[in-house]
Amino acid sequence: MADKDSTSSRDDYLRKLAEEKASENEPANKRFLSPEETHRLLHELQVHQIELEIQNEELLRSQDELKASQERYFELYDLAPVGYLTISEEGQILETNLTAATMLGTPRGALLKQRITRFILPEDQDIYYLHRKRISDVGVQKKWEMRLVCSDGHAFWAFLQATLTQNGDYRITLIDISERKRAEDELCNLNKELEQRIAKRTKELSDKCEELENANRIFVDRELRMIELKEKIAELEKKQI
Fold this sequence. Notes:
CATH class of the largest domain: Alpha Beta
Structural class: alpha+beta
Number of helices: 6
Shape: rod-shaped
CATH architecture of the largest domain: 2-Layer Sandwich
Largest sheet: 5 strands, antiparallel
Order of helices and strands: HHEEHHHEEEH
Helix content: 55-70%
């Protein structure tokens, strides 16, 4: 149905164009067009029709490419496994993808124009300002870790990678590293527990060694006294003889 309407509209346009062409080429005495003039006019109309069809095909192709590009952008940006933020020089959130919005527990629309420091744990805000200043001063990419805060107050560890754009904005990549931090904490606790067990066992062995040394010392002293006593007895026996 849409194709028929399009064809009908094109035919109407060509008919109108033909009428205008005919009026322009019609002599003052309103004589009929010669066969050569009629052929030339029909040829021009056919060429124009083909041009319009080509332009229409190019427009449809451009629309398809634009749609495909938008879909790729949505997949690469909005559905990326990492969060993306664009921060103004004043610290306002200018752009964000769905992943970052999900991390921060806030709808994307509600994030825009918010200050990024609102989502940084107060204890870690100095870390953010320090790295942002270094990026601004040196103009190189910086990476660091700090704790962010969701809208519900829940804090989580994030890895951030930031660069400075030509217009002075900051592009930040966010990765939730909470699981890695938990694993590191568990490993640290296990290491501490192992160190405590080793220290305890070492002390136990040291105490045992000390006990053995004391027992051995007592035994040696006793043996020495026995030898000394035997020697004295032997001397007394010699004197009695």
